[in-house]
Amino acid sequence: MKILLDEKQIRKGRPIGLPYIGSKKKIAKKLIEIIKQNFGTDKTVYDLFGGGGAITLECKLQGLDVVYNDIDPIPGLMIQKILSEDREYLKTVICSREEFFQIRDKEDKTIDDHLKLLINSFANNNKGYLYSKERSDFKYKLAKEIIENHDCFGGYKQTDTFKKAVYENIKITQLQQLQQLEQLECFVKLKNTKVIPKIEIHNKDYKEFSDIKGSIIYLDPPYKNTSKVYNHNNLNHEEFFDWCKDMGKENIVLISEYDMPKDFECIFEFTKARSTLQCGTHNKKYEKLYMIK
Ligand SMILES: C[S@@+](CC[C@H](N)C(=O)[O-])C[C@H]1O[C@@H](n2cnc3c(N)ncnc32)[C@H](O)[C@@H]1O
């Protein structure tokens, strides 16, 4: 299938979503534009491996009807939490190294706890603290001080407090905690603009959506080699490919993968270049979008 994309139509502005492992934030705006230009705006989009919500939220922003699902209930609850809170709440989400490990080892975690683990962990893996042991204290305190004195997340490098710290300690080049909050800042703003009404959220196995007809099904499963990255990793890929083929009989099925069996074709490749290629043969690993042949 030949995919058309007029790049001028792509929404300007930041992508929205949780900082989540495997997040499709980088391609979400382009992907939704591909859907709109090639498959129309009248069908419901089912985002069945929804994760941090980048695709669902972009659909919502662009006025498409969308259903979010993830077998793990936690990301959906975190999305709802962020959408129900304001900017002041975000300031409570960064935590010290000690607090991080206390939370990580707690039996029963609240949604605030899960958000803290996500935001303060290295590569958003919920396991290791964002900063090395030697710099943790200094960087956490500096982030807190900047929030208190300047009330800013994004522009922290311009603050006197940061400049002074860099002058005194040249090893500090960035404060990732504030960068995480900056990402969430545009997310909480959505609540006030009323762009995002209620999001339909489910926590089921993707196969429970086998009755869908006449819709767009977007599938972003864990990749084959990403064991232990998510709470749910036991996806049987052969079974998944068969399910896709079955669902493709009555729906438009779009799959994000790096590699798919022969009965699927790559319809788009998200290269970084401005003019995006149809699928080519080169060695670089770009995000790809597949459909059934
Ligand atoms: C690559 S991530 C999705 C990322 C998402 N597109 C985003 O932009 O943040 C894959 C997700 O699939 C979920 N998952 C794993 N097995 C599943 C299943 N059988 N049914 C539904 N979701 C599943 C995981 O919990 C994980 O959140």
Please, could you describe this protein's structure?
The chain is α/β, with parallel strands linked by helices. The chain has 2 domains: 7-72 and 203-292, Rossmann fold (3-Layer(aba) Sandwich); 86-193, no CATH class. Helices cover 38% and strands 11% of the residues. It has 10 helices and 7 strands. The chain has helices at 25-39, 54-61, 73-84, 87-90, 97-104, 111-119, 133-150, 160-168, 176-193, 237-247, and strands at residues 45-47, 66-69, 200-202, 216-219, 252-257, 264-270, 287-292. Strands 3-2-1-4-5-7-6 form a 7-stranded mixed beta sheet, sandwiched between helices. α1 (25-39) packs across α2 and α3 packs across α6. The longest helix is centred in the middle third of the chain and has 18 residues, at 133-150. The chain starts with 24 loop residues before the first helix and ends with a strand. The relative contact order is 0.15. The structure holds S-adenosylmethionine. S-adenosylmethionine binds at residues 17, 20, 22-24, 48-52, 54-55, 70-72, 75, 205-206, 220-222, 230, 232, 235.
Q: Strands, helices and their partners?
A:
Elements: H1 25-39, E1 45-47, H2 54-61, E2 66-69, H3 73-84, H4 87-90, H5 97-104, H6 111-119, H7 133-150, H8 160-168, H9 176-193, E3 200-202, E4 216-219, H10 237-247, E5 252-257, E6 264-270, E7 287-292
Parallel strand pairs: 1-2, 1-4, 2-3, 4-5
Antiparallel strand pairs: 5-7, 6-7
Helix pairs in contact: 1-2, 3-6
The chain binds S-adenosylmethionine (SAM).
S-adenosylmethionine binds at residues 17, 20, 22-24, 48-52, 54-55, 70-72, 75, 205-206, 220-222, 230, 232, 235.
